[in-house]
Design brief:
SDR_fam, disordered N terminus, oxidoreductase, 7 strands, NAD(P)-bd_dom_sf, Rossmann fold, oxidoreductase activity
């Protein structure tokens, strides 16, 4: 019998968290039991997802994910808070990237 990977309690970064689609996606991931990091260019755009959830479940970060330096700092903050990153999902294209930590940073 093939065992399937469980994403329950996975740490998921949701980019485009400042958009309606991003906020919906983040809420859906939270409802599914994931720990979620909502990323938007401006913190105020991502903060509303935090309401009603504990700091153990969700955090918001203001960052431009297209900037390598900001991305690296974002992953460091998430790893410091939650211990790992399991997936990165963008609301714009509904695609997921699975991130692995390397000595030099992250690779998708």
């Amino acid at each position: 019998m093939q065992q399937r990977h469980s994403f329950t309690s996975s740490v998921v970064i949701v980019s485009d968290g400042g958009t309606d689609a991003g906020r919906r996606l983040a809420r859906r991931k939270l409802a599914d039991g994931h720990r979620v990091v909502v990323v938007a260019r401006h913190a105020c755009d991502a903060v509303e997802v935090l309401h009603g959830h504990s700091a153990d479940q969700v955090m918001a970060i203001a960052a431009d994910v297209s900037d390598a330096r900001q991305w690296s700092r974002l992953v460091d903050r998430v790893t410091e808070r939650f211990g790992r990153v399991d997936a990165v999902v963008t609301a714009q294209e509904s695609r997921a990237w699975y991130v692995r930590r390397t000595k030099r940073g992250c690779a998708a």
